[in-house]
Specification:
Elements lengths: L3 E10 L9 E9 L3 E5 L6 H8 L7 E6 L2 E2 L7 E4 L11 H11 L4 H9 L20 H15 L3 E5 L7 H18 L2 E6 L2 H7 L2 E5 L7 E5 L11 H18 L1
Parallel strand pairs: 3-8, 3-9, 6-7, 7-8
Antiparallel strand pairs: 1-2, 1-4, 4-5, 9-10
Length: about 250
């Protein structure tokens, strides 16, 4: 039985032939049910990995597998949640959540009923007829997360989803995300610039090593959740910071 949710095999990608590649012969795997955080500076290639997984781009060479099958043969398997929630102001909360189901061909009534069936689990009960402007930032992110999950249940790509939230809301959303991830048994790739956030959330951290990206520096986190940045986690944080300092000096 294949236990790999995502596999990159020797993937190279460039946006223009005359320019150097963004990714160069990249290989890595993500296990089913893993929570992976990607730490990378802007422009390093993390968005390219997400664009490849959502099939907005195709690799120049190499292959991408989802659950052991070629990604290009699989429909609606990957959900994507951007940094901004991008909710549609003229649609109610349940209509926003149901949008990907409608785009996949489900009739409006059935799509909204299916989306609504998750509202209790996602802490959205009672908001279904409200509009986005009536929700707090954290609640808007919950709607965005539900919409991403309904876009594709196999793998969820989360691109700095909590970066615009205040510290208390962010902590609450991190705890909520972990509870949903465990309950629904999802595979998550989570982009963040916050080392503490990556340490608190992740099973493994992928740190971008070079440009063009050839391989990740990988840190495994085995501490039980909930976590504090102390002891072994503090040591890993120092290793990551030292690695980043050395890259700046080069």
């Amino acid at each position: 039985m294949n236990n790999q949710a995502v596999t990159f095999n020797g993937v190279t990608f460039t946006y223009e032939e005359a320019k150097p590649p963004i990714l160069k012969n990249v290989s890595f795997s993500v296990h089913k049910g893993e929570f992976i955080s990607i730490l990378a500076p802007s422009g390093a290639g993390k968005s390219t990995i997400f664009r490849l997984l959502t099939k907005l781009e195709q690799p120049n060479s190499g292959s991408i597998l989802l659950n052991g099958s070629p990604l290009q043969h699989i429909k609606n398997a990957v959900g994507y949640m951007p940094q901004q929630d991008l909710l549609l102001d003229w649609r109610t909360v349940v209509e926003n959540a149901a949008l990907p189901l409608e785009l996949h061909g489900l009739k409006k009534k059935a799509a909204r009923e299916k989306a609504f069936s998750y509202f209790s689990d996602f802490g959205l009960a009672g908001t279904e007829h409200q509009y986005p402007h009536q929700l707090s930032g954290g609640m808007r992110q919950r709607v965005s997360f539900l919409r991403a999950m309904l876009s594709g249940r196999e793998v969820l790509l989360l691109d700095e989803p909590f970066s615009a939230l205040d510290a208390m809301t962010r902590l609450s959303m991190q705890e909520w995300l972990l509870s949903i991830w465990k309950r629904l048994d999802m595979t998550i790739l989570f982009v963040t610039h916050d080392i503490d956030e990556a340490l608190i959330l992740s099973d493994r951290i992928f740190l971008f090593n070079e440009s063009p990206l050839n391989e990740f520096v990988t840190y495994s986190i085995t501490d039980e959740r909930p976590r504090l940045i102390a002891g072994g986690l503090f040591d890993i944080k120092q290793q990551i910071l030292e690695h980043l300092r050395n890259k700046v000096k080069q």
